[in-house]
Design brief:
Chain B: Belongs to the complex I 20 kDa subunit family. Chain B: InterPro entries: NADH_UbQ_OxRdtase-like_20kDa (IPR006137), NADH_UQ_OxRdtase_20Kd_su (IPR006138). Chain B: It comes from Nitrosopumilus adriaticus. The complex is a heterooctamer. With about 425 residues, chain D is an all-alpha fold. Chain D is about 60% helix and about 0% strand. Chain D is built from 18 helices and four strands. The radius of gyration of chain D is 26 Å and the shape is globular. Chain F has a domain of about 130 residues: 2-Layer Sandwich (Beta Polymerase, domain 2), CATH 3.30.460. In chain F, strand 6, helix 3 and strand 7 form a beta-alpha-beta unit. Chain F is globular. The chains are: A mainly alpha (about 120), B mainly alpha (about 170), C mainly alpha (about 100), D mainly alpha (about 425), E mainly alpha (about 170), F alpha/beta (about 200), G alpha+beta (about 375), H alpha+beta (about 160). The interface between C and E is large, with 78 and 88 residues. The complex binds iron/sulfur cluster (3 copies). One iron/sulfur cluster (SF4) binds next to helix 2 of chain H.
């Protein structure tokens, strides 16, 4: 039957939902029983070490490490591809490892280049 | 009937009153529990104002170890703290910052004035740049005298503060 | 109503439509990327659905490849956006006409 | 905020209140009770052990408590119980709470001091409760320009994601919330949620330090996810399964750490990084960026994030145990339950001690749980220990560590596994 | 079981797809896009393809969404909330969408696939792995080349070439 | 160091003629109190170079004090650095003399590189005119900065500026340092700034 | 400094990339000061220290107090190094008042000063540990420091603010049996600080974090006029206890620790070596000290100086050479007291060292400068 | 390999310390032992007697009301104020005695040094925290009380580390 496997996974969703259902009340209860005082608008300013904050809080060009995120996207795919291969490894002929090695070699090349690029700090 | 009773304007009243009733019912036990929690979990904000911070550090050192009382030193952000230990002199440059730090902390919050400088200005009673005590800046709960106070005195001050919290109403503000 | 192939295809068609709408209407580069993602996902859904209902393991394999390609595409696309944004300080597609990067 | 009605009169208010009470009672009596009756009438009550579960059965339980057992047993078999209590949330939260307490005490001992001591009379055992009560009664400050929905949701989602992670962990044979074929992949999918929650929470606070911390957390988690994924591949290759229960069961004779120590080390280090534990706690490095992405979280929000963090810690430690240390496998130490004990209880001279809960559990399950918990606590100890011994690493060092050394080691591990497999040491023709 | 889940997923997926395009804030748009991707993953579960589903979750939600969020956060705050589009195009777009949806939907509903359903067991995920390295191995190598090319290209693109290049642009 | 000898002053040569490079008995430390001969040679070199422009206030053991006019202080400082091997300023202190209507700025100059000078402190004092109603930065209380000679005076001079109102011309960064941002009173270390109750 | 700014700075749009962070005054990594850093991504492109949060006007107030009542005041800038910070003032006042100090008092002073140096360094080390995220390294030094504090407390009756040195000697004699206790605890203390090597100084993470960060070359160290451990970590052999011995240091065998590297690691290691040296000195002094004798010259209640005179005295404190410039006129109060404090002198190096560093290096570089904000502000 | 051995050494050192004795002084139960009864000053020799500089103690029968302590403190913290006391103390002609405000006092002991009549001592009492500023002002009558002392913990050094016994 189509969709029978999905039942197994529903417990994960159930657990996730339970996490939300169990924890949201904690915030609500906390909001209910905690004292609140909004006397001073200063209170709601972003915290900046006892200084009245200046400037935009959300601008931060941390570009130095941006290549790592780019690499992550690609190599994540690679890693999970490897799982498809690795979990079936016991059943496939040994010769079939070669394409995977070729794939890995290509990826190693790419990774070496990417690491070299990301190591050069001047260009980011 | 219900409809014209609960208008948007007075809905808050109802909610508030309902809260009050609820509070009455569970006030005693809940208040006690909350106070108990607050007593044993005083997290001081990390604001060093002057040299008393040395002895504040000593109070959390292995020899005196304020963590026995649930006080964790060197806490990161002020948003999670509930105790200001004013560690000494408040200069005119520092005072607004101290006030800001105090303001930005979430309720309930407590203040311990540590050291002669924080209480009255101490040695610097006639200095041109030092405030005579911090009462004018933030309300103080416990005074811990000394210059600097011995860690024992500070711990005693913390115990006094615990006593004070025990007697406080759990919900001071609505 | 039980789950049938046609249900999945219909959902996929809806997503495709939405994606095409987004591509046609939006001029924000990032939004257009969103639209492309939606279209790719619609296609994946179809691939997997057909693979399931006309049993063939190739469907899932195709989907895996498709997702991987999408990942590569997004990486390049976002790099493009960054370059373009750095040049024009904007994400409006109209500004990118002279983009040569 | 609260708008008090301008012409507010107490008498009117009381009158209206009384009216309300009257109406509520009226409506409940007129509609509610029949409705409940009808629902009871319509809904089919489950049959357990050949007995129909009716409300009247409760009366017999009062007379004979042991008759409740089948029902409890049936309840324990449901998903709800698993999610809420035993292998799921309750168990994990209990262990997480224990972890926090142990961490504080152990760190204190390492640092030659006492740690929490006075709270709860005995060695500060209730310290955590105190902290929790305090946090829950603490004001929650939402920064003025914060993105409120995300800001509120992030801590809750963090706990929920951690809980979803816990769902994959098999504690004892058959005791797992989600017994799925691809548990390991599921774990990776769930881990992928944490960076998103972190960065969203950091962004929504609209403050500088959280944003820097969030971006750091993002870089860190994202960079270490790949060595994490790769380091587990060796085990998967050798077992040929992604099911965590099967992986655990496959180690009945020896744990995989014997053959794949490199993978275990890589996994341990990446685990520390994913958990933001001390050598890698850059996102919360207090001497640089205050408290990182937690800076603006106050009160219970902070508490929830802490809870989520420690749930995650438990889940990672458990994953380590399951994958590398053989999960629940261990010598049988729990004595078998003879039938007469189950039925009659233990005879201790004149008295007969009935062990009430015992029939609910099997020997296997108790033994497995025991070993599992022991191993997990051991791993948790080693997760906690670096906090006392190492300083914090720097972010560029961290990233280069993850991307060069650890990925390299992970591949070494993969090739070791491949070699073992093809040399016939392990796998179909080998030891297993 | 599958039906309720199917409906819910359909609503989530399509709703959040619309939201992803129409929400004012790009951040919320990204979150909604994550909803769409997750919904698709749910469909994959329903189609007994958990491997693909989890791959989708890990890759799309776990990494692509992160990358998108990160990029969106780099963009100036005003731009995150700015909507650039005009009315005419919008109506044309809606029209186009409807035409496509109706025509394709009609085609599908009218064709023979309407009745297709299956009782065969789902494909084991190990078959996929086997396929990968046996039947599809050229594709795998190609995929490797593609991924390598993309990461190289992306890095080369995203780096700030040199100073004067940037100055010319500004 | 000896390059300066080609400019002999009109005065009689100083009678103590120690070899300038390596004075006796200063390397091994425990030597007991000796006559401040070495110190005298330092002051003599300065006097030799600048003649009347400098005034040697005292020569004590390890300490030589020289008073200079504000016009010459820069040159003297340069000579002290290049000719005498002193390389850093330990402290810059202002002293207010209301009766003289002057503010004295005292540089304590020491040397790390020259081990024979290790225990020496050369005190270079100069005076700036003082105003009764100072407008820090905009009045006649000015001195040339020594920052280009001795980099280490940077923060010290900033401090003297805010504590005494002595403006150092040519100092790149004459901002407030220690006092609160909104300080509007007299510079506090002047004698006419009375602290409360005294 | 041979660092080139990231090329982004050359652009006109730099302001977008650059974020200004206020580090302090309420910041776990700043102490009582504010450092305004501008960061471009992970790199600090500019840094502006903003001290003065503890400026209490000690120098002004010293003009209103007589030579004795100044004592509690002048030790407040560095209360955990209070003997050393008072030392130059006391020496100067003795010279101005023309007092000869008894021999035993000199030895007591040396012991107190060395103990205090260790106490200071231990606190410094504790904070350095916490700045690097090493909580154990906060706790151990903070705890072991108490061993010496205990000694000082026996000796002077206060934990940190001793007010022990006075012009004319020390306030009170050593308590009975002090020598034995002192030897025992100092020996144990030395054993303890050797333990730190494994967990801290030889820890590979610490080494990789602090090596080659914030390098202060020899020339720069001299040019900025830095002092103390900062100077000696840059390869300049300069210790006032050797170069310009005061009190009885010329009778003791003092060894100067010098390191060549000039990076944060060297700057953090030198104080540790100094502590061992201090232990040695204490042992020597305990041995050589006259077993009995007067420790304080009796003074008139309000001593006066002779006339307009000035002295400049220096001692080697825990942070480096600490000078005190006293101008006196014939009054009971000094005319002007100026403390030339090492923290203030080392502060000059901070903006230069931080420029171009990574943000993660900020705490380690900052605190390795041996900076105590209260002292710098006075 | 240097890295690995370093890490192992650090871990080893950490684990070793788990077995070391705790250094903590459990303060409210245990209290430190000090030298003597507190800081005193012998006006005849001009040298103090070692002891803790804690709360002051005033001997009413020695105090003559000469104000010297107050004058000494003026330069320090202005903590001492001379107040009228009921005229029971025959020694004190002016019937004024010092009253000390511990919110200001810095425990320097200079007032003890200044008292020529051996009337002002310091004691081992340091538990002075209070809820209010007024509670910190100690009148002559309060200063007369000798504090109760039960202080007996000292640092003990053994093979397994230092403890407080
Ligand atoms: S009370 Fe004493 S130790 Fe504390 S800040 Fe003031 S002067 Fe410093
Ligand atoms: S101890 Fe010092 S501050 Fe306290 S009263 Fe005596 S002189 Fe004044
Ligand atoms: S205590 Fe001593 S100094 Fe003070 S008034 Fe009495 S006798 Fe005079």
């Amino acid at each position: 039957m189509v969709g029978e496997l999905a039942g197994n996974y529903s417990t994960v969703v159930l657990m996730f939902a339970f996490g939300i259902v169990a924890m949201a009340p904690a915030l609500v209860i906390s909001r209910m029983i905690s004292p609140r005082k909004r006397s001073n608008p200063v209170k709601f300013l972003p915290m900046e070490c006892g200084q009245v904050p200046s400037g935009e809080g959300r601008t931060h060009f941390m570009m130095q490490y941006y290549p790592y995120i780019l690499m992550f996207v690609v190599f994540d795919v690679m890693a999970i591809f490897l799982y498809a291969w690795g979990s079936a490894l016991l059943e496939i002929p040994k010769i079939a490892t070669l394409p995977m090695m070729g794939f890995l070699a290509i990826m190693f090349g790419a990774m070496a280049f990417a690491l070299y690029q990301s190591g050069r700090r001047r260009i980011w | 009937m219900l409809k014209d009773l609960v208008t948007p304007e007075n809905a808050n009243v109802f909610v508030g009153k309902l809260g009050d009733i609820l509070e009455k019912a569970i006030d005693k036990p809940l208040g006690y529990a909350i106070n108990w929690g607050r007593i044993w979990s005083l997290w001081p904000v990390h604001i060093e104002t002057a040299c008393c911070s040395v002895e504040f550090g000593a109070a959390s050192s292995p020899r005196y170890d304020v963590e026995r009382f649930g006080i964790i030193e060197a806490f990161g952000s002020l948003r999670q703290c509930d105790l200001v230990v004013v560690q000494g002199t408040i200069t005119r440059k520092m005072a607004p910052r101290l006030r800001l730090v105090y303001d930005q902390m979430p309720e309930p919050k407590y203040v311990i004035a540590m050291g002669a400088c924080a209480i009255t200005g101490g040695l610097y009673f006639d200095s041109y740049n030092v405030l005579p005590g911090i009462d004018g800046v933030i309300p103080v709960d416990v005074y811990v005298p000394g210059c600097p106070p011995r860690p024992e005195t500070l711990i005693q001050g913390c115990m006094l503060l615990q006593e004070k919290i025990k007697r406080m109403k759990a919900r001071k503000f609505v | 109503m039980t789950s049938e192939l046609v249900d999945f295809t219909l959902v996929s068609v809806a997503l495709l439509g939405i994606g095409i709408y987004g591509l046609a209407v939006k001029r924000n580069f990032i939004r257009m990327l969103f639209a492309v993602e939606i279209i790719i996902n619609a296609a994946n859904l179809n691939i997997v659905a057909f693979g399931r209902f006309l049993p063939h393991s190739g469907g899932q394999t195709m989907a895996l490849f498709s997702i991987a390609i999408a990942a590569a595409e997004v990486a390049v696309g976002l790099s493009l956006i960054i370059v373009a944004y750095r040049m024009y300080q904007n994400v409006d597609i109209a500004d990118f006409r002279s983009l040569k990067g | 905020m609260s708008v008090i009605a301008p012409n507010f009169k107490l008498s009117e208010f009381i009158k209206s209140l009384l009216d309300n009470v009257f109406w509520i009672i009226f409506i409940v009596v007129l509609i509610g009770i029949p409705a409940i009756m009808m629902i009871l009438f319509v809904i089919e009550m489950p049959v357990i052990d050949g007995e129909l579960l009716t409300p009247f059965l409760a009366l017999t339980w009062i007379a004979d408590p042991s008759r409740i057992l089948p029902i409890v047993k049936a309840f324990m078999a449901t998903d709800i119980f698993r999610v809420m209590a035993f292998p799921g949330f309750g168990f994990a939260a209990l262990l997480a709470a224990g972890t926090i307490f142990i961490e504080r005490k152990m760190l204190a001992k390492l640092q030659l001091r006492v740690g929490p001591f006075y709270c709860g009379k005995f060695e500060g055992i209730l310290q955590l409760m105190g902290d929790g009560l305090k946090l829950i009664s603490k004001e929650i400050i939402i920064p003025a320009k914060a993105d409120k929905p995300i800001f509120w949701a992030a801590p809750v989602l963090f706990v929920a994601a951690a809980a979803a992670f816990v769902a994959f962990i098999p504690v004892a044979p058959g005791w797992v919330v989600a017994d799925v074929d691809m548990g390991l992949l599921g774990v990776f999918a769930v881990i992928g949620f944490f960076p998103i929650i972190t960065i969203l929470s950091a962004w929504s606070a609209n403050s500088k330090f959280p944003f820097i911390g969030g971006i750091r957390a993002l870089f860190q988690m994202v960079s270490f996810e790949i060595p994490l994924i790769l380091s587990l591949l060796g085990v998967v290759m050798l077992t040929g399964s992604l099911n965590l229960s099967e992986i655990a069961a496959s180690q009945s004779s020896f744990p995989w750490i014997v053959f794949l120590p490199v993978g275990a080390i890589v996994f341990f280090i990446t685990m520390l990084a994913e958990l933001e534990r001390i050598p890698f706690d850059l996102p919360e490095a207090e001497s640089e960026i205050v408290a990182g992405w937690l800076t603006e979280l106050s009160g219970m929000m902070y508490g929830l994030v802490q809870l989520g963090t420690y749930l995650k810690l438990y889940a990672f430690a458990a994953l380590f145990v399951v994958v590398f240390l053989g999960g629940w496998n261990g010598p049988m130490v729990v004595p078998p339950f003879p039938a007469e004990i189950l039925e009659k209880g233990i005879e201790l001279g004149p008295v007969t001690a009935n062990i009430p809960g015992l029939p609910l559990f099997t020997q296997d399950m108790l033994n497995g749980t025991l070993w599992f918990v022991l191993k997990t606590v051991g791993v948790i100890f080693f997760i906690l220990l670096p906090r006392g011994v190492f300083p914090r690493i720097r972010v560029d060092m961290l990233l280069s560590l993850g991307w060069t050394k650890l990925i390299g080691l992970a591949f070494v591990n993969i090739f070791i596994a491949l070699g073992l497999l093809y040399a016939g040491v392990l796998g179909p023709g080998g030891l297993q | 079981m599958a039906d309720a889940a199917f409906l819910a997923l359909a609503v989530i997926t399509i709703g959040s797809a619309i939201a992803a395009l129409e929400l004012r804030s790009l951040i919320y748009g990204s979150i909604a896009l994550m909803g769409t991707l997750g919904g698709i993953a749910g469909f994959f579960f329903l189609l007994d393809a958990p491997f693909v589903a989890l791959f989708q979750l890990a890759v799309y939600v776990g990494s692509i969404a992160v990358l998108i969020l990160f990029t969106v956060m780099l963009v100036k705050r005003e731009l995150i909330f700015k909507k650039i589009e005009d009315k005419r195009r919008k109506f044309a777009g809606i029209g186009l969408m409807l035409v496509i949806m109706v025509s394709l939907g009609a085609v599908f509903l009218d064709s023979g696939i309407k009745t297709i359903t299956t009782d065969e067991p789902a494909t084991d995920f190990r078959d996929i792995g086997t396929d990968f390295v046996t039947y599809y191995w050229p594709a795998l190598i190609l995929m490797g080349l593609l991924l390598a090319g993309s990461v190289t290209g992306a890095l080369v693109l995203a780096k700030r070439e040199d100073v004067e290049n940037d100055q010319r642009a500004s | 160091m000896s390059t300066e000898t080609e400019n002999p002053s009109a005065d009689a040569k100083p009678e103590i003629k120690t070899p300038p490079a390596k004075p006796a008995a200063n390397k091994p430390e425990p030597t007991p109190v000796e006559l401040p001969a070495f110190e005298k040679s330092i002051s003599d070199k300065i006097v030799e170079k600048f003649g009347d422009k400098v005034e040697v206030a005292f020569v004590k053991e390890d300490r030589v004090r020289i008073n200079v006019d504000k016009e010459n202080v820069h040159d003297v400082a340069e000579f002290i650095r290049d000719g005498l091997n002193y390389d850093h300023v330990e402290s810059v202190s202002g002293v207010d003399y209301p009766q003289d209507n002057e503010i004295e700025v005292v540089y304590h100059i020491g040397s790390y590189t020259d081990s024979s000078l290790a225990r020496q402190i050369l005190v270079l004092a100069t005076r700036a005119p003082r105003e009764t109603n100072p407008i820090p930065g905009n009045d006649a209380t000015r001195l040339p900065t020594l920052r280009d000679v001795f980099y280490s005076v940077e923060f010290h001079e900033r401090e003297v500026f805010e504590m005494f109102g002595v403006f150092f011309e040519g100092h790149p960064d004459n901002r407030r340092l220690l006092l609160p941002e909104d300080w509007a009173d007299l510079p506090p270390l002047r004698k006419d700034f009375a602290i409360k109750g005294r | 400094m041979t660092f080139n700014l990231p090329p982004g700075l050359a652009l006109q749009k730099v302001d977008e990339r650059i974020m200004t962070l206020n580090v302090g005054p309420q910041h776990p990594g700043s102490g009582h000061m504010r450092i305004i850093v501008q960061i471009d991504g992970d790199y600090i492109v500019a840094c502006d220290p903003d001290p003065g949060y503890v400026h209490r006007g000690e120098e002004k107030m010293a003009e209103y107090r007589n030579y004795i009542t100044n004592i509690p005041h002048l030790e407040r800038p560095v209360i955990h190094d209070s003997c050393n910070v008072l030392y130059p003032y006391v020496l100067g006042a003795e010279e101005l008042l023309g007092i000869e100090v008894p021999e035993r008092a000199k030895y007591v002073r040396v012991i107190a000063s060395e103990l205090n140096r260790c106490i200071y360094i231990m606190y410094w080390l504790a904070i350095y540990g916490i700045f690097l995220g090493h909580s154990t390294m906060f706790m151990w030094p903070a705890g072991d420091r108490e061993l010496l504090i205990d000694l000082m407390e026996k000796m002077t009756g206060a934990r940190v603010t001793h007010a022990h040195f006075v012009p004319g000697g020390v306030r009170n004699d050593l308590p009975p049996n002090f020598e034995d206790v002192c030897l025992r605890q100092v020996n144990y203390f030395e054993k303890r600080i050797k333990e730190y090597a494994a967990v801290f100084y030889d820890n590979p993470i610490l080494i990789s974090r602090t090596r080659d960060t914030g390098i202060l070359s020899r020339q720069d160290a001299i040019r900025y006029g830095t002092t103390g451990s900062v100077l000696r970590a840059s390869g300049v052999d300069y210790d006032l206890r050797v170069k310009e011995p005061y009190d009885v240091y010329d009778e003791l065998d003092v060894h100067t620790n010098v390191m060549k590297e000039g990076d944060s690691y060297a700057r953090s290691r030198i104080p540790w070596l100094d502590m061992m040296e201090s232990c040695n000195i204490i042992r020597q002094a305990l041995q050589k000290m006259p077993k009995s004798g007067s420790v304080r010259v009796k003074l008139k209640p309000n001593p006066k100086t002779k006339g307009l005179e000035s002295v400049y005295k220096r001692v080697e404190s825990g942070r480096g050479s600490l000078g005190c410039y006293i101008v006196s006129d014939a009054k009971t109060e000094p005319y002007r007291v100026k403390l030339s404090v090492p923290s203030f002198r080392n502060l000059i190096a901070l903006p230069n060292l931080l420029k171009g560093e990574k943000l993660g290096n900020m705490p380690s570089v900052y605190w390795s400068l041996n900076y105590w904000p209260v002292e710098a502000d006075r | 390999m240097g890295t690995a051995t370093g890490i192992i050494r650090a871990l080893n050192s950490g684990i070793k310390h788990i077995a070391t004795k705790r250094f903590t002084l459990r303060y409210p139960e245990e209290k430190l032992k000090f030298v003597g009864d507190g800081y005193q000053f012998d006006p005849s020799t001009g040298v103090g007697i070692a002891g803790l500089k804690g709360r002051h103690m005033l001997f009413h029968d020695h105090c003559t009301g000469c104000q010297l302590c107050s004058i000494a403190c003026e330069g320090v913290a202005e903590a001492i104020a001379m107040v009228k006391v009921p005229e029971e103390q025959k020694q004190n002609k002016k019937s004024i005695m010092p009253q000390i405000d511990y919110g200001k006092c810095v425990f320097c002991g200079l007032c003890v040094d200044a008292c020529p009549f051996y009337a002002l001592y310091m004691t081992n009492d340091y538990e002075l925290s209070s809820f209010s500023k007024e509670g910190l002002i100690y009148t002559p009558a309060q200063l007369q009380v000798k504090p109760y002392v039960a202080q007996d913990s000292e640092i003990q050094i053994s093979d397994r580390g230092a403890t407080h016994g």
